[in-house]
Structure formats: C-alpha cells, structure tokens
Amino acid sequence: MAEELKKAWYVLRAISGKEAKVKEVLDGAIRNTGLGNYVFQVLIPTEKVMSVRNGKKVVKEKNLYSGYVFVECILTGEVLYELRNTTNVIDFLRGRGKNAAPEALRESEVLRMMGTADEMIDPTDEGNDYMVGETVKVTFGPFSGFSGTIEEVNRERKKLKVMVKIFGRKTPLELENSQVERE
C-alpha cells in the first residue's frame, strides 16, 4: 500500500512560537520510532535578519511562516494521526469543508519555499551591512566620484542617506546600496 501512496509536502499548523519544539519532537520521533519510514523531512523556513544593537551587528533567525511547520511524508492513517496529535500541533492545513483531507503542497510552492530557505542561508547580503558613520564613495549617477558619510541606513528598502560635500556645503543624498562602495 505504501508503494501507491506518494511522498509529498504537507503543512502543519502549530501554536505560534512553538514551531521549533514541534520540529524537535518530530525529528526525535523520526529517529527513534517507525515514523521515520513515512516522515522524511521537517522544515521551518527561516530568514536571517540583521539588526544593530548597542552599535554591534546582530544576526537573528526569524520564521518566514509563523505558526507553520512543513513536513515531507507519506500520509497514511497512522502517520496522519501521529502528526496531528503531536504536542503543540493544532492540525493540518487543509481545504475548505468540514472533513476535508490535508492538502499536499504543489511542486511550485515547494520549490519556492525551498528556494526561499536556500536564499536566506547566506547572511552576507552584500550591500546590506552598511553602518551609520561609515565613509562611502558614490559610484553611480550624477554624483559619481563624490565621497560622503552615511547618516541613515534603511535596511528594508536598501537605501542610504549619505552626506556629500558639494561646493563646500554638506548635502544629503538618498542612494540605493548598489550606488555606493566602501572607501
């Protein structure tokens, strides 16, 4: 019977903030019980977020989908029961309807999720680590070649406010990270 059932990705709804605990419990069950024959991967897509705290750069991991745990498994009756009754799991993400079965993710959704997870692994997002007070050189646009000091960093929009001296006066410029380079 397991031959005719295919392995697919499903989404478990978990109590928000308890995703890591659910993953820990399921990983333990995969290693130590027969659940490992049917459940292959448990994934919580995260992204690395850089923030500045007390003048130091701090990289933290943040859940991409709060309250959701992705599970690659062959969904049979017993596996469905075990996953649904795991501590801190609310239920499967399923279609509309009272007794709707859990829906597998489409291949495009899985690839997007995996691609996002792969992209976020590298925290060295070049150009996103400028600090206030750094001296940079403008490399693009009408002010190319001018040097200035960073006054403000907007990491979400990937923009910088740079004070450049033009004709002896300091002038603020709003530039994209790609338009400057370190001196």
General description of the model:
InterPro entries: KOW (IPR005824), NGN (IPR047050), NGN-like_dom (IPR006645), NGN_dom_sf (IPR036735), NusG-like (IPR043425), Rib_uL2_dom2 (IPR014722), Transcrpt_antiterm_NusG (IPR001062), Translation_prot_SH3-like_sf (IPR008991). This is Transcription termination/antitermination protein NusG. Keywords: Transcription, Transcription antitermination, Transcription regulation, Transcription termination. The structure is a single chain. The chain has 183 residues and is an alpha+beta fold. The protein folds into 2 domains: 113 residues, Alpha-Beta Plaits; 48 residues, SH3 type barrels, CATH 2.30.30.30. It has 3 helices and 11 strands; from the N terminus they run E-H-E-E-E-E-H-E-H-E-E-E-E-E. The strands form 3 sheets. Strands 10-9-8-7-11 form a 5-stranded antiparallel β-sheet, with no helix packed on it. It has a 4-stranded antiparallel β-sheet with strand order 2-5-1-6, covered by helices on one side. The protein is elongated, with a radius of gyration of 24 Å. The chain starts with 7 loop residues before the first strand and ends with a strand. 13% of the residues are buried. About 4% of the residues have low confidence.
